[in-house]
Structures are given as C-alpha cells and as structure tokens.
Write a structure and sequence with these properties.
alpha+beta; Immunoglobulin-like; 5-stranded antiparallel sheet; 17% helix; 44% strand; elongated
Length: 156
C-alpha cells in the first residue's frame, strides 16, 4: 500500500472517530422539559381535545410528537389537522413543531366523532418522540384522563 493511500485511510478513520464522538456528545447534552396540558370533553358521540405543548427548557426542541390514545375507537374517515395522522382508530399522533426553550407554546384542537356513543372513555396523552432530546421531567407530558359523556371539560 502506498504511503499516500495509508495517509488518506488514516485521515478518514480519524475523521469518523471524531465525528462519531461529536454526535454522541451532542445527543447526550441536550435536555428539555416538555409539558402537555389542556382539556378533553365528550358529548353525544363527539370528543373534543384542546392541547397546549410547552418546552420549559433548557434546550430547544426542533420537533416532537405527542401521542393521543383513546380507550374507545373513533369513527373512520375523519380529517385531522395537517400536523396529525391516524395510527389506528384509537391513536392519533401530532407534530408539535419547533418548541423553543423557556415557554414556547404550540396549540392543537381536535374535534372527533366516536365510533359509538360511549358513556365514558379514557385518553392517554404522552410525548412519543423528541428528536433525541432528553426530558428529565416526563411526569408533566404523560397524562391519563377519564372523560364522562357530560360535555364537561376534564382538565389535564
């Protein structure tokens, strides 16, 4: 092997090691505190979800996904906001968009129809993905809400 080729291979290997270490250090160093709050209402086979996602910092989050899971199936053929998609008839996932540190807020409203007319259902709200950012306080981004079909807002 020529000296020039050995030199190029050595430089390439060194670059891979340095870049790999930099990426690991970067992924470990970012921490944010995402929080989801809002309320849910159920009435006459309709489910309303009003959700606010916040980042209490210290780092920005370029993108996160909030997952809403329902104990009862939703009716098929319903349109969702452009930032959301159906995972199944019981799961909706929504992008938050960029959440800057220290108070960035992203709002979401869903107006859904249930497959039947349940007297109650449970909604599980949780952060599903944070673009590699660590959340040191996951308690404020995971909620389980029992919603009775009274039309009243159940706050989380």
């Amino acid at each position: 092997m020529s000296a020039m080729r050995k030199g190029l291979l050595g430089a390439a290997s060194a670059a891979v090691v340095v870049l790999g270490a930099g990426e690991s250090a970067r992924a470990v160093g970012f921490e944010a505190d995402l929080a989801h709050h809002g309320h849910v209402s159920l009435w006459e086979g309709r489910l309303g979800v009003w959700l606010v996602s916040e980042n209490h910092g210290p780092s920005d989050v370029s993108q996160a996904t909030v997952r809403l899971a329902f104990s009862e199936p939703m009716a098929g053929g319903q349109e969702l906001p452009p930032s959301c998609l159906w995972g199944s008839d019981r799961v909706v996932a929504c992008r938050t968009g960029e959440l800057r540190a220290a108070g960035a807020i992203e709002e979401l409203a869903l107006d859904l129809r249930t497959a039947g007319s349940p007297d109650e259902l449970t909604v599980h709200i949780s952060t599903a993905w944070t673009d590699g950012t660590t959340d040191g306080n996951p308690r404020n981004d995971r909620h389980r809400v029992l919603v009775l079909a009274t039309g009243d807002p159940y706050v989380f």
